[in-house]
């Protein structure tokens, strides 16, 4: 499985965000500026990745896997931090920081899947 | 308050946008329940996209498996909604959905081991959710435990204790 710099950048941002949110939850703190900003960083990363994917795919690079599978992953991954944010701030208990922690992990898994679709790999249907 | 964001499972209907923290009127969508609902929402999205993709592009390859994939997606969506909503009806609905989910992951998981030809491509429930870190088989068990601990009689007693 090929992994590029985008994946590792996402991995760092996602792991940091998840670690910060789990840490805050363990300290029994509810969502605060730090945990919410860490999720905002994940969202920012996804937006940058989205823009870069549009640029790269319109300037000659192409996907090994199916187009719309890639885009559905990408758009979903870009929406997840927003959904997690709202779901977490509706109840400001420390459990909501675990909700925020799930955002980073989920985005990492989805980034890994997007790498498979981009470069080809096990389980990638071509077309 | 928007209800349609992908991760933002239907929010409990409260009159104010920010319910008083720590004083939920229904136990199952509060505290750990919020994390549980989050995981259910993620699986609802994952299963729906996967089923949609399989049925749209290669339905004839393994129709049975892909229909079951769609069933799994519907079960996750229904479970997410019923866990997030308040009231006696939604409690029963949640118990039903999560039980069906447990049954589904056990039956499909076993079938996928016995007949790998009919299940060439992993559905969410294949091999008890192996492709998803076995979360699909753990999730309904946690769900049922959570629902039992927040059964209506307990919630009512808790409310009484609080003097509500």
Offer a few descriptive terms.
heterodimer, A: 127 residues, mainly alpha, 4 helices, elongated, B: 164 residues, 5 helices, disordered N terminus
Q: Can you characterise this structure?
A:
The complex is a heterodimer of chains A (127) and B (164). By secondary structure, chain A is mostly helical. Chain A has one domain. Chain A contains four helices and no strands. The longest helix of chain A is centred in the middle third of the chain and has 26 residues. In chain B, 62% of the residues lie in helices and 0% in strands. In chain B, helix 3 runs antiparallel to helix 4. Chain B is mainly α and 164 residues long. Chain B has one domain. Chain B contains five helices and no strands. At the A-B interface, helix 3 and helix 4 of A face helix 1 of B.
Portion of residues within helices of chain B: 55-70%
Mean pLDDT of chain A, to the nearest integer, reads 92
Q: What is the tally of beta strands of chain A?
A: 0
**Would you list the SSEs of chain A in sequence order as H and E?**
HHHH
How many domains in all of chain A?
1
The succession of helices and strands of chain B, N to C, reads HHHHH
Helical segment count of chain A: 4
On the 0 to 100 scale, the average pLDDT of chain B is 82
For the biggest sheet of chain B, the summary is: none
List the domain count of chain B as a whole number: 1
Strand content of chain B: under 5%
Distance between the termini of chain A: 18 Å
Helix content of chain A: over 70%
What would you report as the Rg of chain B, rounded to the nearest angstrom?
17 Å
Low-confidence stretches of chain A: none
Strand portion of chain A, in percent? under 5%
Number of helical regions of chain B: 5
Q: Nearest-angstrom radius of gyration of chain A?
A: 15 Å
Head-to-tail CA distance between termini of chain B: 27 Å
């Amino acid at each position: 499985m090929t992994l590029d710099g985008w994946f590792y950048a996402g991995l760092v941002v996602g792991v940091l965000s998840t670690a910060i949110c789990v840490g805050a939850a363990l300290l029994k703190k509810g969502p605060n500026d730090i945990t919410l900003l860490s999720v905002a960083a994940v969202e920012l990363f996804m937006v940058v990745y989205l823009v870069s994917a549009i640029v790269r795919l319109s300037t000659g690079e192409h996907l090994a896997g199916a187009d719309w599978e890639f885009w559905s992953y990408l758009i979903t991954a870009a929406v997840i931090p927003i959904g997690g944010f709202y779901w977490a701030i509706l109840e400001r208990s420390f459990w909501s920081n675990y909700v925020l922690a799930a955002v980073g992990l989920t985005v990492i898994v989805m980034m890994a899947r997007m790498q498979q679709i981009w470069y080809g790999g096990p389980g990638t249907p071509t077309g | 308050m928007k209800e349609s964001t992908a991760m933002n499972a239907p929010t409990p209907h409260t009159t104010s946008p920010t319910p008083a923290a720590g004083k939920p009127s229904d136990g199952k969508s509060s505290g750990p329940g919020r994390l549980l609902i989050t995981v259910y929402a993620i699986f609802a999205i994952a299963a729906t996209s996967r089923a949609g993709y399989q049925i749209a592009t290669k339905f004839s390859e393994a129709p049975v498996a892909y229909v079951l994939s769609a069933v799994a997606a519907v079960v996750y969506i229904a479970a997410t909604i019923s866990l997030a909503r308040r009231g006696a009806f939604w409690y029963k609905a949640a118990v039903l959905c999560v039980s069906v989910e447990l049954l589904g992951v056990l039956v499909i998981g076993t079938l996928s081991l016995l007949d790998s030809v009919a299940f060439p491509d992993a559905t969410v429930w294949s091999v008890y959710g192996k492709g998803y870190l076995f979360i699909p088989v753990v999730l309904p068990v946690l769900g049922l435990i959570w629902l039992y601990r927040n059964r209506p009689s307990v919630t009512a007693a808790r409310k009484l204790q609080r003097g509500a």
